[in-house]
Amino acid sequence: MREHEETAAAVWPLGARDQLILWTALGSIAILSWIYLLWMPMTPGDLGGFAVRVAGLMPANWASLWLVFMMWTVMMAAMMTPSASPMIMTYARIVRGRERGGWTRVGLFAAGYLVMWIVFSAVATAGQVLLQRAALLTNAVSIGPVAGGVILAAAGIYQFTPLKTACLSYCQSPIGFFMTNWREGPAGALWMGLKHGAFCIGCCWMLMALLFVAGAMNLIWIAALSAFVLIEKAVPRGELIAKVAGVAMIAGGVGMMAWR
User: Fold this and answer.
1) Alpha carbon distance 86, 229 (integer Å)
2) Once rounded to an integer, what is the mean pLDDT over residues 106-114?
């Protein structure tokens, strides 16, 4: 443990070239994801001839399900890549300072993080399908006022739970995360990325459920939630902001149910 703490505490500055490479990669993921969301392909034909041929090999409902899954996956990449950037940057500073290269490990760490959000996207897709079959979604992407109020109030209550507080503390402190979870080698990089992704999901999953309240395709709502997640993790008193927002969510949820 002592060796792990010393390793994680040894954070070196990144050169201008390394910073440019890393910020370009992270920025490209976020920007391309937002471009996809703005375009929002709704049929296989929107993705070109190859997608049409692939969709032709599966039932229509499976092709539609794949598009919904893609929407959630890209949406999570657009929303969560900016908030994960400080953690990825810190890891890059550790491994680039210890050895020449190290980009493979940085890539594996980032990939592990995104894999966890891909898993979450699969769960969200299943949830959307179940809500559609239960006729709880209007226009296929937003939920009614009563159920929406319940989700909003539940998200507010979750902001006060010990699990939320614990997960947020790990997301706010990259050095603290690496000092307690450090693993060597490429496999260790992937494992840490997966674990950070799990903590991030634990911190934000109820916030992501709010996408059903205003609409999973509402880009303004997506941008607002992205900004809130980033602020919650990046500012010094993020836990206080989380609790203030929790009170507002509870009040908003009760208001939605009362004035339905």
Assistant:
1) 13
2) 96
What pLDDT is stored for residue 57 in this prediction?
45
Count of structural domains, the chain: 1
Range of the domain at 27: 2-258
pTM for the model: 0.86
d(CA 62, CA 43): 12
Considering Cα of 26, then 205, then 155, then 131, what sign does the dihedral take?
positive
Amino acid at 178: F
Rounded to whole angstroms, the Cα distance separating 20 from 2 reads 33
CA–CA separation, 219 vs 225, rounded Å? 10
DSSP H or E segment with residue 142: strand 142-143
The alpha carbon torsion through 68, 65, 153, 162 (nearest 10 deg) reads -90
User: What separation in angstroms does the CA of 172 have from each of 12, 112, 200, 203, 249?
Assistant: 19, 18, 10, 11, 22
Residue 42 pLDDT more than 70?
Answer: no
Residue 83 CB coordination number (10 Å): 21
Query: Is residue 33 within 8 Å of residue 82, measured between CB atoms?
Result: no
d(Cα 188, Cα 180) in Å, to the nearest integer?
13
The mean pLDDT of 184-203, rounded to a whole number, is: 95
DSSP assignment string, 10-76:
--PPPPHHHHHHHHHHHHHHHHHHHHHHHH---SGGGG-HHHHHHHHTS-HHHHHHHHHHHHHHHHH
Question: How far from the centroid of its chain's Cα atoms is residue 71's Cα?
Answer: 13
Q: Which pLDDT score is estimated for 15? A: 78
